[in-house]
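note to self — DONT lose this again. spent like an hour looking for the file last time. sequence + predicted structure for the chain T wanted, 224 res
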Amino acid sequence: MPEVIFNGPAGRLEGRYQPAKQKNAPIAIVLHPHPRFGGTMNNQIVYQLFYMFVERGFTTLRFNFRGIGRSQGEFDHGAGELSDAAAALDWVQTLHPDSKQCWVAGYSFGAWIGMQLLMRRPEIEGFLSIAPQPNSYDFSFLAPCPSSGLIIHGDKDRVAPPKDVQTLVEKLKAQKGIVITQKTIEGANHFFSEHTETLLEECADYLDRRIAGELSDPRPKRLK
């Protein structure tokens, strides 16, 4: 797993990158939790998600947002971090011009950034949104949400209360042309303490089913 440094909007960004053997393999980007609360690309959930995609033949990248680890710049309350994520996707796509599909996975703060990236990039055809925080961040930009995906959270999450996540899920499920899958993990808090294995099993099961052609609208996405 090569350590990589690539150019971002506020300076160099540090990442870990695993290219797939197939030239046209799909790309996956994994986004970490809040930089101000200890979030880095080495977060255990982010690390495990990275390998989940690698094992399924994706070209995969995780990276540190600006100001974290060896990434340059300073925390920018989401706007700059979204630009970092877009730059990261650009960087991978430059190396893999034959890849036509892309997935984004984000945890907590990373889920919010990932969903915004989804709105900007029509080639993103699937997402994993882990413990999103609609009580803390505005998700109204998802109008409409352009891709099918998984929203997964714990029923004991005090950082992102289940009722707020439920409101977001119901709003998205009302939209046509996509399929939103929701999984609620019993007993899990925001950090999935003692429930990480269950979380990863659910994410892997969802990804496998999507690869098999399930859980999404059968109509092909129209690239801009």
